[in-house]
Design goal:
The protein has 356 residues and is an alpha/beta fold. It has 3 domains: 60 residues, 434 Repressor (Amino-terminal Domain) (Orthogonal Bundle), CATH 1.10.260; 128 residues, 3-Layer(aba) Sandwich (Rossmann fold); 132 residues, 3-Layer(aba) Sandwich (Rossmann fold), CATH 3.40.50. 39% of the residues lie in helices and 16% in strands. It has 12 helices and 12 strands. It has a 6-stranded parallel beta sheet with strand order 2-1-3-4-5-11, with helices on one face. It has a 6-stranded mixed beta sheet with strand order 7-6-8-9-10-12, with helices on both faces. It is elongated, with a radius of gyration of 26 Å.
Length: 356
């Protein structure tokens, strides 16, 4: 693309690129033949600029190495990061918040919360509010940005990190998660080794990668044990108590009920325990139950819940430290982190009841 900077015009002042001086917004606007407010809108992440014009302005800013103000240090000196949940309202969320707060406090950084009402893609209103703030960086929990949203944050030098991604993220997007496939494998293998053959699974939302990975681990453990997957023993919902309860009522209130259930979260598992109790089934004597997450309440259920420990606070703290490094212009050692899970055996699993 040609520009005025490359055109011989003796009656015009030397451009910043040729003079080696820092450019001004006015000089960039003059070079491109656009208004100063248009360049300012692009710098401030405003959406009311035509895509082609935005692209030309961004290219000019990059070409002149225009130094944008870093959002991480507001005038009062207090850095700020935006923690974005697709949905709040569970103990799981509190463990993530705790990990972020601990790492942020150590860096003298404040945290604000945003909630997307169950959606996995932030709406336009969230982006405009964030760009108007702006924060030092953004942590996205079980959600992702569109390509256009990523570009607008990058254009404002606002880094972002995804925690427990809901799907496959581009290779250049920093992510922190856990080994969900191994967690599902370990939970189901434990039940197989106890002698169970009719093992049901309650999954989370099908559009979330962590849920699909846990079920893939479940299927792999069954295959390794020579057990065919019975579609009738697969149910799903979200990761909260009510869907776990509803799925367990469907699975357990049938003549050929399963002898064990692998729930996709501890909250679902609590719903399973309630359903079993209402149906007069004893856990683990009549049905074994395994949860997922190892939330603090798992050891306080009656009986205490066997579950897969997912290092939620460590995931959140790791993601926060990566984000703070990026916000400070430092390159983190790792930008794609997958932490290990661990089976925690308590009181809700036992061999299946003897057939009489």
């Amino acid at each position: 693309m040609s520009s005025i900077a490359g055109t011989h015009r003796p009656d015009r002042p030397t451009t910043p690129e040729r003079a080696g001086s820092a450019p001004t917004i006015a000089q960039i606007a003059e070079e491109l033949g656009v208004s100063v407010p248009t360049v300012s809108k692009v710098l401030n992440g405003r959406s009311d600029v035509a895509p082609a014009t935005r692209r030309r302005v961004e290219e000019a800013l990059e070409r002149h190495r225009y130094r944008r103000r870093r959002p991480g240090a507001p005038r009062d000196g207090a850095a700020l990061i935006d923690l974005v949940f697709h949905q709040l309202g569970s103990t799981w969320s509190m463990e993530i918040i705790r990990g972020v707060e601990e790492a942020a406090a150590a860096a003298r950084t404040s945290v604000i919360l945003s909630e997307l009402g169950g959606r996995h893609r932030p709406p336009r209103a969230w982006l405009e509010t964030t760009l108007a703030r702006p924060p030092a960086g953004v942590l996205l929990v079980a959600s992702q940005l569109t390509e256009a949203q990523r570009h607008r944050l990058v254009s404002r030098s606002i880094p972002f990190v995804v925690i427990d991604t809901d799907g496959d993220t581009p290779a250049d997007v920093p992510t922190v998660g856990s080994d969900n496939w191994s967690g599902g494998l370990a939970a189901t293998r434990h039940l197989v080794e106890l002698g169970h053959r009719r093992i049901a699974a309650i999954g989370g939302p099908s559009d979330m990668l962590c849920s699909r990975a846990r079920l893939d681990g479940y299927r792999s453990a069954l295959a390794a044990g020579g057990i065919a997957v019975d579609p009738a023993l697969l149910d799903s919902g979200n990761f909260y108590v009510e869907p776990g309860y509803a799925a367990a009522r469907r699975l357990l209130d049938r003549p050929d009920r399963p002898t064990a259930i692998f729930a996709g979260s501890d909250m679902q598992a609590i719903g399973v325990l309630r359903a079993a109790q209402e149906l007069g089934l004893r856990v683990p004597h009549d049905v074994s139950v395994v949860g997922y997450d190892d939330l603090p309440l798992a050891q306080w259920t009656t009986p205490a819940l066997t579950t897969v420990r997912q290092p939620l606070t460590e995931m959140a703290a790791t993601a926060t430290r990566i984000l703070l490094d990026l916000a400070a212009g430092r390159q983190p050692e790792l930008t794609r982190v997958n932490l290990a899970t661990e089976l925690v055996v308590r009181e809700t699993t036992a061999p299946p009841p003897a057939r009489g």
